[in-house]
């Protein structure tokens, strides 16, 4: 073509990174207030416990909780529990994800199957998942698989609904364009439908990962011989509040770390997307 | 067959297009006969909602006629028109692919090796003036740049014919004129048949060899076919002020105006009719 560049009114920012924090000018103030809040709450708790305003038996105190958590890491006893919990969560995420993807895809593509399964899927999704835990314990035993199964029931529906939506809402024009460019059925799935569904799935990755961990921990809590959930339930069984809180602290710290990692992964996988509207809530 | 022994690339014989919308049959176009000679640039114009795009989709094979026949190079069209490239009104780019991968997409589907298609795609990206934006994603581009990407995407496969559905409709006037000019430059000497749909008579006259006018919908028919014998190569930036242009434009416009008025009247009546649907 003869006259390039002339017709391009706006020069785009070719590699604008995802700047999702709004109001950057307020950041130091926000950070300082956040830290101050944490200090006040923790110190207040500590003082109240020491002065007997709250009962240490029920509420423990931050210094004890911290030293317990540090102790776990120093002796290394926590690692095995963390490993088990994370392995369970990872397996639940992968198995639930693949199942949700495949079944979501199938239902989105085949109208008949979707019509047949619709009420059953709604019914299963309406079921409070915790009631399944006992039956999974019976079926899969006390080992990791009962927790994985439990996590799968949580993850599956999120991925399933997002896949279903993603495949159905794929842009008609994009599909027609791909077909006109010569895409056969299989290529259409690989280059258009799957990426469209994956967009939705990645957008709900936070929720899926969160639920996978919830599944593992709740499963362990109800009956296990290892894992962070087991640790917490053991502490509870001996009225060891410090242990319960320490387990909670460790768990939330780990979830935070995982969340940061998921954020990185998501930003990489969805790098082609406009920076706003990056987050779409999951199926639940 | 055209008059001067020009081969026919696209032929519509008594084509009627209908679809069901909310239980009621809606006839978009009825009994359309249209012949497009090989290598010709033919535009279809008509008032809004007259089924221009529907005709184009029939030629593309994306829609099947309710009656009549679509012939491509003299053979009845079955399934998708494999000889045609299609430029859509809206964005058909794959948002998750870079400019390079989007342009190379058609070749990728055909199984052209990675290095070969990247080379060809770079070539085309440079031709449409997007060098340097190979790794950008569609959302990072302006409307005009996305159109350039779409042009490269449909031309890279070297289709015999190009179907264009108001490709520049969404662009601002200046960008649009530049894009039209570039399209013409690209087309000149390419011997490709172009079927171009637009509601803009100005655009249709300045680009085409022939303008086909569709009547107001529903059940639009062809009102007339007008030859545009302006000399080529044309400079689109000047052509609009030439007396020949004005003359042809006026001739078509007097017919088009009637159709536009009909559409307008029907729409105002249609508000009452539409209510009981």
UniProtKB/TrEMBL annotation, chain B:
Keyword RNA-binding attributed: no
Family matches, as CDD domains: ABC_NrtD_SsuB_transporters
A Gene Ontology molecular function term of the record: glycosyltransferase activity
Record-annotated ABC transporter domain positions: 10-241
Keywords linked to the UniProt accession: ATP-binding, Glycosyltransferase, Nucleotide-binding, Transferase, Transport
PROSITE patterns: ABC_TRANSPORTER_2
PANTHER family (alphabetical): ALIPHATIC SULFONATES IMPORT ATP-BINDING PROTEIN SSUB, TAURINE IMPORT ATP-BINDING PROTEIN-RELATED
Name of the protein in question: Mannosyltransferase
Source organism of the structure: Prauserella flavalba
Lineage: Bacteria, Bacillati, Actinomycetota, Actinomycetes, Pseudonocardiales
